[in-house]
Amino acid sequence: MKVQRLRVTFSRGDQVKYITHLDLMRLWERTLRRAGVDLDYSEGFTPRPRISLGAPLAVGVTSSGELMDLFLSRRTSLRRFTEEVSRQLPPGIDILKVEEVGLGLPSLQSQVRWSDYQVEVTADRDPQELQDALRRFLEAESIPWEHLRDKEVRRYDIRALVQDIRLDGHADNAYRLAMRLRTDDTGTGRPEQVAAALGLPEPDRIHRQRLILAESSPAREAWRRRGRFE
């Protein structure tokens, strides 16, 4: 019986950025078992530990704000959990925060609304030219877009997947963009596709800084006012 629900914020570095979402789930299951965590299991013929990740992270993308919920069958202290599990984690994954959340809250996946990304790209573009391109993108009501994925052409409005985007720094031809992209059951924004829609080449690096949940949506205005991610 589930008696405690923990929400873990963790990072995913360069050492493990090429593992798939499924492999990451398996990695966490093995790690938690080795750490002796008393996980709660689902019922049925093939019981599974009650573990869920906030939103899949694309292969090749690093992160400092991934979220995971897990249900326990026996209570534990947050400090003990962090210490015991951290000893079992491989290089490249670090626990940043652990908090207890209500057992009756909606599923973690259903609460995710947006993702904050930092995108680095090298382009032979004038900074003002890029600023103008960003302004035109944000002012557009819709931007039809299509790309080939899994041998299928996908068509959608890419503008609807972007809440905000801005130039966050540059040096010579190296640019850093800050993007806030939709991440829910209506659609998922992909940084490399947004970059392509702006006429930019494939990003050199993509880093997800955090996932934004439904109850934290007012952070949008703070993000705008401060001119940086929180």
Question: Summarize this, please?
Answer:
With 230 residues, the chain is of the alpha+beta class. Helices cover 25% and strands 38% of the residues.
Describe the protein in words.
The chain is α+β, with helices and mostly antiparallel strands and 230 residues long. The chain has two domains: 102 residues, Pseudouridine synthase I, catalytic domain, N-terminal subdomain (Alpha-Beta Plaits), CATH 3.30.70; 116 residues, Alpha-Beta Plaits. The protein has six helices and eleven strands. Strands 1, 2, 3, 4, 5, 8, 9, 10 and 11 form a nine-stranded mixed beta sheet that branches. A two-stranded antiparallel sheet has the order 6-7. The two termini are 37 Å apart. The C terminus is likely disordered.
Helices and strands in order, then pairings?
Blueprint lengths: L3 E9 L8 H14 L16 E3 L8 E11 L5 H11 L4 E9 L6 H4 E11 L4 H13 L4 E6 L2 E6 L4 E10 L2 E11 L2 E2 L2 H7 L7 E9 L5 H8 L4
Parallel strand pairs: 3-11
Antiparallel strand pairs: 1-3, 1-4, 2-3, 5-9, 5-11, 6-7, 8-9, 9-10
